[in-house]
Amino acid sequence: MDKFYFYGPVKTFFKPEKEEIFRELLTYYDKIGVISGKSAIYKTGFRDFLVTTYQEKEFLFFDEVEENPSINTVIKGAKFLRKNRCEIAIGFGGGSSLDAAKAMAFFAKNEGGFYEMLSKQIVERSLPLILVPTTCGTGSEVNNYSIITDVEKADKINFSKETTFADFAVLLPEYLTFLNEEVLISTLFDAFTHAFEGYISLKANPFSDYIAEAALKNIISILKTYSECKSFDYEKALYSSSLAGFVILHTGTTLLHAFGYYLTNHKGIHHGKANALLLPVYFKMLKNSSVKKMKRLNAL
Ligand SMILES: [Fe+2]
């Protein structure tokens, strides 16, 4: 077996008693910044849950994260956290909100330009961060990737550093039930591509392969059941998308994601859907190139 490493520094709670777990995680903090987009935090009742359950705490809400968050939004959110002297942040939502929250927690403690900080080697620790995913695609809650859009260049930048991991992830399948069918399935395809691309990546190792296989098997079975009887396993989907997030922490993604980003940036197609659209031709290309692992995949 070749040399390799594996790790995952985010303490991740699956299906916890949410009242208890947030009470524990917020124990030492009085001022809490909450980063989200404009709708899910209201629709799911998460904002009300925080405000009514922990009345002794002060919550400061920044709900301006857009789909494909921009550098400007990140800088604005970081200023918000600093100005309000937030002691910890919670990122709530899909991949956009979680990625933005990671970058905002970073810039809350590291003042400077986006590209200046991107290239800087020695940085301050980020603000403590808890992530709560509301989709089953990103896996962002368990890795340190923060995909931020440079609007002027119509380009996506991966702002990732050793300090851009969250401290905690809280996986609550109940929040997936608020997604419409299109977003639910699109995000699950994003998770599928994370596991799949990680599996065929040259950076794959026995650990990432093991979890990629588990994620792929789960996702295929979820999609099969869904297409046969319209029943969707939210728990398994959320668990699998986090597994796939661990996979790409070790392997990164491949050409498929690069092309998918092009479709998102230039044609406005949802990230997961863009990846799903490209999958058939990508499968064909890998098959034609005799990629060895494609055979192993068939046996899953
Ligand atoms: Fe993705």
List keywords for this structure.
single chain; 300 residues; alpha/beta; Rossmann fold; Dehydroquinate synthase-like, alpha domain; 2 domains; six-stranded parallel sheet; two-stranded antiparallel ribbon; 12 helices; 51% helix; globular; binds fe (ii) ion
- Overall geometry comes to globular
Q: What is the structural class?
A: alpha/beta
Rg over CA atoms: 19 Å
Level of helix content? 40-55%
| Total strands | 8
- In terms of DSSP E residues, the strand content is 5-15%
SSE string, helix = H, strand = E?
EHEHHEHEHHEEEEHHHHHH
Residue windows where pLDDT falls under 50 for at least 5 positions: none
- Biggest beta sheet summary: 6 strands, parallel
- CATH C-level class of the largest domain: Alpha Beta
Number of domains as seen in the coordinates: 2
Question: What is the terminal separation in angstroms?
Answer: 22 Å
CATH-defined architecture of the largest domain: 3-Layer(aba) Sandwich
Bound molecules: fe (ii) ion
Query: What's the mean pLDDT score?
Result: 95
* CATH fold call of the largest domain: Rossmann fold
Strand order of the largest sheet: 1-8-5-4-2-3
Number of helices: 12
Give your account of this protein's structure.
- With 300 residues, this protein is an alpha/beta fold.
- It has two domains: 166 residues, Rossmann fold; 119 residues, Dehydroquinate synthase-like, alpha domain (Up-down Bundle).
- Helices cover 51% and strands 12% of the residues.
- Strands 1-8-5-4-2-3 form a six-stranded parallel β-sheet, with helices on both faces. Strands 6-7 form a two-stranded antiparallel sheet.
- The model has no long low-confidence stretch (mean pLDDT 95).
- The site of fe (ii) ion has 4 residues, from α7.
